[in-house]
Design brief:
Length: 107
């Protein structure tokens, strides 16, 4: 809640990436949820959110936290990936989409 007071982590297009650091956490954790009914998240585009990726990091995570946050943001910003996440029918299919290797920038 403290993080959301700084500004919404609803980044638009039905996506939210709440994140924060916790003192007793030993490593980075991510949790993905696809909601049956979108909720108001005070998103940047004022659209309801149905895809949420919670990212939690140890207080001392530093750059690792930022790298993970950037990767999640790039992944969920991709309209094709968001579509696949919305259409996936089970946990294995969701995991397959989320665990895809990042697209190479070299062509």
């Amino acid at each position: 809640m403290q993080r959301e007071k700084l500004g919404s982590t609803g980044v638009g297009n039905g996506v939210a990436i709440p994140h924060g650091k916790l003192p007793k956490l030993g490593r980075l954790f991510g949790l993905f949820a696809r909601l049956d009914r979108p909720i108001d998240f005070e998103s940047l585009d004022n659209q309801p959110v149905d895809l949420i990726f919670l990212l939690l990091a140890p207080e001392a995570a530093g750059a690792d936290h930022l790298k993970a946050l950037a990767r999640v943001a790039r992944l969920l910003r991709d309209q094709e990936i968001a579509r696949k996440l919305r259409e996936s029918r089970d946990a294995d299919a969701l995991y397959a989409v989320l665990a895809m290797p990042p697209a190479s920038s070299a062509a």
